[in-house]
Amino acid sequence: MSNQQKKQDSGSGSSSSVRGGTRLQDGGVVCYCGRDALVRQAWTDANPGRRFYRCGEGWKSACDYFRWRDVEPPSGWQKQALLEARDQLRLQAEELNTLRSRLASRGEEAENESTVELSEAVEKLMKENEALQVANHKLLEKKISLRQVYIVGCVGFVCGVVTLIQKMK
To answer: What is the pTM of this model?
Structure first.
């Protein structure tokens, strides 16, 4: 097909703002290079929301296939409504990106704050652990002393009982 025929098939107007393509399920349109064409959607001021066919190879295609899927261009109040909706979506996308950036920076700040808080908590727990280890050591010493006192007491009791038995004989 000649370039002249391609231009006639493509219709008028350019599309500098489009959204991703999808594979067709409606009988399929084949581009000049034999691939299934993709359906894309233009969001230019002249053709808001208007769908078109593009080569299945994508934007790097050598065949440069283009044809409007929606035969009539948008017009009247519908065109205006589409343009307003497009502009609103763009503003919301910008705001969303701004909020994501702010959230990411706050996330880093919060992460730094969390790291400091965790470090302080770890230090506090380590001091508490040392104090508990000292207290545990003191309790072990008391346990040993009490055990010794108990043993001495038992030995003394046994000696006393043996002495009484010997005196009774």
So the answer is: 0.45
